[in-house]
Amino acid sequence: MFRPLSKWMEEKNSRYYQSPDTSIHGDFLTYAQSPEGLLTRAHALDFHGWAAKNEKDGYSVLEVGVGTGAFAQGFLAQLKEQDEKCGADIFSRTHYTLADFSPAMLKKAQDSMAKAGFLKNSSLCEYDAGAPIPEPALSDQMFDLIRCNELFSDLPAEMGVRRNARTGLVYYDEKMAARVEMKAKERRPDSGLGEMEESLLSHMPANYFIPFNKTAARSILNLRERLARHGRMDIFDYGFYRREDFDLPPSIWNDTIVREYGGQWTVDLNFIYLACALAEKGARSAVEEQKEYAQRFAGGPLGLDESEKEGLGYVKAGGRGRKNAADKKADGGKSMEDAKTGSERYREDDFFYHMRIEA
Ligand SMILES: C[S@@+](CC[C@H](N)C(=O)[O-])C[C@H]1O[C@@H](n2cnc3c(N)ncnc32)[C@H](O)[C@@H]1O
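^ thats the input. predicted complex w/ S-adenosylmethionine below
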């Protein structure tokens, strides 16, 4: 049965993440679980600097889509270290909320936060970032920082394509086989693409499947409402933004734009679309390569960690790079442990981006 991508993602991802038997890092690797945690530590240093300039009695940080809690722990550990280094007390004034739609995942995060000694500084919140209306769970709280690592690429998205100056929708079957239905003259009411999506599609390269992460856009706008004055929201995820991201033949691109990990479906984040959808609602955002962002706070250039033993990670420059761009695109964001090919690397690039949204 061919159905819109969003329907499969909604169904499969909810089942996958809600199961107590799911072990996410058995199925894929993320930057959050890297033992050095250079990304989350860079983010903590960024926040520490912001907090020092925005003096408050208490700071509140919200993370959505927390997985095992590793992203939270690296962040809090770095805040503490930075306090010690510069004689500040930002850590003790920071409360960290871990939000996820999966009670099973929250339980795992809670256990690991307890082990790391961070329970006192944190709380848990069951929150569905894909819900059509903002969840009441957070409606009476404001945050100085909202952070998400590899959440939005898991939220339901529609897939479009342009061929011969016409646009169409891509439908998928259970095995992820794709079928394109070109648009009839009149837009179908259930076409899943609105005016902005249609217009963007007409500017995208022809024959490439283009995801429109509509639930992600709505979710980001909802979360933005929870930002305190001068607060920021930072999104780290895998996707595309630059012209050179399309340096792949459409056949490879189309085959790898949606990926399956242990029964869960992930799709690239279309940062161009997100920036437009946010701008349409008056929300300012900026996008940069994630590695560029991390190295601004790492005290020097970073490379991609080649080992991938315990997560995706960066290493201080001079370390070994990871893999070539085409391999990476074929692996797609989260990396499967057995998906390495070892072929020549022509450009060190991980296709991860950082998007910042201001209050
Ligand atoms: C790919 S994992 C990333 C986990 C962690 N941030 C990391 O990078 O290792 C996605 C996380 O988002 C959560 N998630 C997925 N869909 C969600 C939704 N609709 N609302 C809230 N959390 C969601 C999952 O339960 C899981 O914890």
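The CA atoms of residues 82 and 295 lie 17 Å apart.
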